Amino acid sequence: MGTATSNGITLRTSGLTKHFGGLPALHDVGLSAETGKVTAVIGPNGAGKTTFINCLTGVLRPDRGSMVFDGRELSGLPPHRIARLGIARTFQNLRLFPELSVLDNVLCGLSGMAGDSLLEAFFRTPSLRHRERLLKLTALEALDNFDLSAKADWPAGVLAYGDKKRLELARAFVSKPKLVLLDEPVAGLNPDETERVGALIRQMQRSGATLILVEHDMDLVMSVSDHVIVLDGGRRIADGSPEDVRRNPLVLEAYLGKISLTA
Amino acid sequence: MNARASATASFVMRHRTGLTVVAFSLALAPAPLLLANPWKLGILNLVALHAVVVLGLNLFIGYAGQISLGHAAFFGLGAYGSAILTTTYGIPPVAALVITAAGVALTALAIGVPTLRLSGHYLAMATLGFNIVVHNILVQWDQVTGGPSGLTGVPPFGMIGCAFQGETQQFYLLWGAAMIGLTLSLNLVRSGVGRGLAALAQDEVSAAAMGVNVQHGKIAVFAVSAVFASIAGSLFAHYMGTITPDTFGIFASIDFVIMVVIGGLGSLWGSLAGAAFVTMLPYLLGPLEDSKDIIHGLIVVTILLVFPRGLLADLFAMAKARLTHRRAALGRPA
Question: Pick from B191, B213, B214: which is nearest to A128 by CB?
Fold first, then answer.
């Protein structure tokens, strides 16, 4: 009991539906994220990709459907509980804590392990000191992995855009979560930086993380994903290996419009 | 020899915050000997009382990024709670202080749970409204609160048969309380709980995605700041001996917020400076009696314009920039 990972699935959604005032943002979406694999979710703008992530992380409450993570149903849980189960995320539009230092931003990614006791915090007990030291070492290691060590004391708000993107990744991965949801991790990056983030994603996957990648950059999707799901108008219109999806006429139509109409 | 020196250095590094508080306390300790005038010592004692309120309020406003225009109400509830319990019921001051603080914590929870779903102007209005309600109760409920003329004959604070009497003894009691409050606050902000508060102040959605319980954190820090205010209120009642409702109106709440802002949002040492500055200003302006309010207002506004991050933070930043420039001019590495 408890380890639904035995069959190799870290997250399984079925029939996931979310309407905004009658408009379907998600309709009957099923997805299985295999443990240790990268599952990409692609689709044109407004396809429901971010809504999907927001449902998984508890920011939005789905109207129907189930989301089973590691043997537990997620629907109805508040965001912080979901995070503490081991699901981390990045945001499409950066959501760092701009006035906190780079190091503190990463330390916030370890909130689930930092302890909640006010009394312990007020009296700064030896066990809290010890724990804080360990967390700091973990955070510094993550900064090193993501090439941000030199800027540990900088306020996050002054970093260059590419550094901010990598800081969000460091913050998401620092707690070694079971599942990481990446919402457009390379949006707005130049090809060099995109390549760098791609390498980091592959590195994280090799170290055992299960990833769900929402992305528009097809080169990145094709190069890092094991499995691709295509959404359009809130519905899943295709899934399969990157090659299958690339050749699927429905996918081409969703992205390019009906050839007969545009010709 | 070298090993011992490095052990000392590492001890100092590890406990630098605690040692700074100790050094500050030692520097402050001879004040009663140097200030022969009990009236001046009395002003310093008021600073200590206000500092306790401001430290708690800074955790709520400066760290957690919320706003309260009602903390004078918690200050007042603390003062009246202790005054009533000690005079009417003959309960010892320490027990009265603890019972009152517990009652205020519950009150803060009861108010915080619904109102902390609000933010910005709405939260400001809700806390302001709470203060007005409390003030009205203090004025109207004659039989218990003594009405507009308040309560008199509150005994001095004491424990195990010793009472703190006179300005000098009160000085050590009140500044002791302020230093404890400072230490606890400094500890809190250097913990995971403190980081969670700083995170939710900047972005609640992002903080929750990191595992921070946003609603719980806001309510907890609200209650903590209310308890700080309540304890300061209890000590205030014992210190003054007489309390009236006027001290706990909305203008007092606004003064507390001004102390937080002048000291610097999120700067706990700055809170001491803010409390000292705003408390002492009216006394320093004593001779200019007629235009006191205008000058007071002008000075406060000027400070907010010139030092937007607070007195201490901005003065430090300026000093640091100066030093770096001078070093650069001398051609030495910074």
Answer: B191
What's the complex ipTM? 0.88
How would residue A1 be classed by pLDDT, with cut points 50, 70 and 90?
A: very low
A26: three-class secondary structure by DSSP: strand
Determine how many CB atoms are found less than 10 A away from the CB of residue B287: 7
pTM assigned to the model: 0.88
- Check if the beta carbon of residue A228 is closer than 8 Å to that of residue A245: yes
**Is B264 an 8 Å CB contact of chain A?**
no
Question: Least CA distance to A127: which residue of chain B?
Answer: B191
Residues 6+ apart with CB under 8 A from B26: none
Q: How far apart are CA A169 and CA B298, in angstroms?
A: 47
Residue A248's Cβ-count burial label (10 Å; 0-12, 13-18, 19+) is middle
CA atoms within 13 A on the CB side of B30: 3
Residue A170 contacts residue A110 (beta carbons within 8 Å): no
- Residue ranges of domains in chain B: 37-249
The residues, ordered by sequence, that sit 6+ positions from B132 with a Cβ below 8 Å of its Cβ are B250
pLDDT at position A258 is 55
